[in-house]
Amino acid sequence: MWPLYAAGFTTAFGAHGIAASLGGDAAGAVTSLLVLGGLLALYDGAEVLLKPVFGTLADRVGARPVLLGGLVAFAAASALYAVADSPAWLWAARLGQGAAASAFSPSASALVARLNPAAGHGRAFGSYGFYKSAGYTLGPLLGGVLVWAGGLRLLFAVLAVLGGTVALWAALAVPVVPPLPKTRQTVLDLARRLADPVFLAPTAALAAATAALSVGVGFLPVSGRTAGLGTVATGAAVSLLAATAALVQPRAGRALDDGRLTARTGLTVGLSVTAAGLACAMLPGLAGILVGAVLIGAGTGLITPLGFAALATGTPAERLGQTMGAAELGRELGDAGGPLLVAAVASLATLTYGFGALAALVGLGAVVALGGFRVRPGADGAAGAGGRVRRPGRPGR
C-alpha cells in the first residue's frame, strides 16, 4: 500500500507545489496573469477530460500498468522542463503532468480498493487521503523553498525524481492485479450506473467537499487581509484547514470499518460540518477564519474517505477504475465550481455572501443526503452511501 500512498502524495504535491509557485517565478516563464491562468487551467483541464478515460482503461488492461505508465509519464513531463528551461516547454510539461496524473490518480484509488477487503476500505482510503492531504499541505511550502533556491527548473527536477522513484517502488512492490471479466456495457448502461444514488450520492458529497476545501484555501486568506491580518495569520489558517483534514481522514476511515460510523451518517455529518465552517467564515476577524478553517477541514476529512469507501463497496470490482475516474472528475468539477460560485457572488455583493451561498448549497446537500440515500438492511456499515452490496462475482453492467 505504501507506493500507492506515495502516488497520492505525488499528484497532490505536484499539483499544488507548482500552482503555488508559478506566480512567484523569477525566471520570467510566467509573464502575465493570463499566462498564469492558462498554465493552471491546462493541468486541471487535462484531468477533467482524461481521468474517466484512464479509469476505464485501468479496468480493461489492469490498474497497475496504468499506474506505472502514469508515474513514468509524470517523471518524463517534469524532466522535460527541467532540461529544456524554456517558457514554451513549460506549457508542454504542465499538460504532460496533468495527463499523467489523470492516469495514475484513479488507478491508485482503484488499487487501494482492489488490494483491501471491503471491511478495510475505510482505513485504506483514510490513509490514502492522509498522504494526499500531506502533499497538498507541503506542496506550496516546499515548492516555494525549491523555487527560491533554484527556480522552477529545480522544482520540476525534484518532481521528476519523485515520480521516477515512486514508479520504481510501485513496480517492485505493487502486486499484479489482473482485470476482471465483465459484460459488455453500452452508453445507456453507463448512464444508468452513474445516475444511480450508489454512485451519485458519494460523488456529489466528494465534489462538495473539494469545492469547500478549494474555497477555504483560496478565499480565507482574502478574508484575513480584509480584516487587516498579516500573511502569517492567514497562512496559519490555511495550514490549520489542511492539517485538520489530514488528521480526521484516517480516524473517519477506522470508525467506518469498526462499525462506529455509517457512510450515510458520516457523509451527512461531514456535509453539515463543512457548511457550518463556511458559515463561520462569514464572521469577521481571526476567530471566524480559524473556526471556519477547522470545521471545513474536519468536514472534508470526514467526507473524503467515507465517499471513496462507499464508491468502492458499491461498485462491481471489474468497474472500479471507471468509477474512480468518474468520481475524480466530480471532484475536479467541485474544485473549479466552488471558487467560481463564491467569486461570482462576491463580485455582485461581498465575499461574506459568497461564503454564505456555498454554505447554503452544501447544507442543502446534507439534507438531501440524509433523506435520499437508499439503504438496505445490514448494508449501511462499510457498504457505502447507497447501501447496496453486490455479491462477489456478479457481473456489473
Walk me through this protein's architecture.
- This protein has 12 helices and no strands.
- Residues 375-397 have low confidence and may be disordered.
- It has 397 residues and is an all-alpha fold.
Essential attributes:
80% helix, mainly alpha, single chain, 397 residues, 12 helices
The amount of helix comes to over 70%
Low-confidence stretches: 375-397
Radius of gyration: 20 Å
User: What's the total count of β strands?
Assistant: 0
What is the rounded distance between the termini? 29 Å
Q: What order do the helices and strands follow?
A: HHHHHHHHHHHH
Short description:
This protein has 397 residues and is mostly helical. It is built from twelve helices and no strands.
Secondary-structure map with pairings?
Blueprint: H1 2-22, H2 33-61, H3 63-84, H4 87-114, H5 121-173, H6 187-195, H7 197-226, H8 231-257, H9 263-280, H10 285-313, H11 320-348, H12 351-372
Helix pairs in contact: 1-4, 1-5, 2-3, 2-4, 2-11, 3-4, 3-5, 4-10, 4-11, 5-8, 5-10, 7-8, 7-9, 7-10, 7-11, 7-12, 8-10, 9-10, 9-12, 11-12
